[in-house]
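Subject: design request, 261 residues
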């Protein structure tokens, strides 16, 4: 598959889909031999969806998120996100595009320790030169307010609890108005109660129209999403959405006196 050629945004098919992944494969080459981490994944995510990617450790969840969000390259297939074929972009185009259009939350908040909460949140806007200092500060304070931490704006990460740090990371992910927020085990290092507070925050973003993809191995966290996609051995093995469509098709077929299978 060609890499690094100049990619132009292509129109997303008129399905309301924000993400369309087809036949995505990813193999890691290790000293012990090739590891097929993704073995042909198809996934369509509608605008405004809240999807949990679930599966046991090593099933391929992180690899899937990284490949769908353009943090890592794929070996085969296509990923179209908000009308752009990610893997047709050069590395430089892709990283600019990601910075402009996507927000990320990881297991560890990865805040810059020497910066205050508000400085951490405004940083992506300043690095991408998307706002001057004054506008970035106003926007960052709005986001801290949104995650309930306006009064901690000038605290350094070390003065915040793990849950508060993760809420700052959520504010930072949102500051640029991303098309999708991606989160990889965002509650993985939090206690159960704090984990649910962070998930409630993500749920509220979804309720306001945001699109979220959250990777988790924790079923109680996944239960808070609108749709669950199960991954095993690098493949999608269940999907609430296709299960629902399957049920509807089966009941339509049954009521027509023509049960399938
Ligand atoms: N950078 C890497 N190099 C080699 N193998 C990797 C790398 N990252 C992940 N893997 C392997 O790919 C498989 C899927 O890993 P991963 O996507 O991290 O799963 P999960 O996030 O579900 O725990 C595992 O077998 C893992 O060991
Ligand atoms: Mg992982």
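Subject: RE: design request

Done. Sequence follows.
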């Amino acid at each position: 598959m060609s890499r690094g050629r100049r990619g132009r945004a292509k129109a997303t098919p008129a399905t309301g889909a924000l993400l369309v992944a087809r036949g995505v494969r990813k193999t890691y080459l290790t000293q012990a031999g090739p590891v097929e981490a993704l073995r042909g994944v198809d996934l369509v995510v509608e605008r405004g969806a809240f999807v949990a990617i679930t599966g046991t450790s090593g099933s391929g969840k992180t690899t899937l998120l990284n490949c769908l969000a353009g943090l890592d390259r794929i070996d085969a297939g296509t990923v179209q996100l908000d009308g752009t074929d990610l893997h047709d972009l050069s590395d430089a185009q892709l990283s600019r595009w990601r910075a402009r259009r996507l927000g990320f939350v990881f297991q560890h908040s990865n805040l810059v320790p020497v910066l205050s909460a508000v400085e951490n949140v405004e940083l992506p806007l300043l690095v991408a030169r998307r706002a001057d200092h004054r506008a970035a500060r106003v926007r960052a304070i709005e986001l801290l307010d949104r995650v309930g931490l306006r009064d901690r704006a000038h605290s350094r990460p070390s003065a915040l609890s793990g849950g508060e740090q993760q809420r700052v990371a959520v504010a930072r992910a949102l500051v640029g108005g991303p098309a999708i927020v991606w989160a990889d085990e965002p509650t993985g290092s939090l206690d159960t109660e704090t984990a649910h507070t962070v998930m409630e925050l993500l749920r509220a973003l979804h309720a306001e129209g945001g699109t979220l993809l959250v990777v988790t191995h924790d079923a109680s966290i996944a239960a808070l999403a609108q749709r669950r996609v199960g991954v095993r051995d690098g493949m999608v093995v269940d999907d609430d959405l296709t299960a629902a469509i399957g049920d509807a098709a089966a009941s339509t077929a049954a009521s027509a006196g023509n049960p399938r299978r």
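The radius of gyration is 20 Å.
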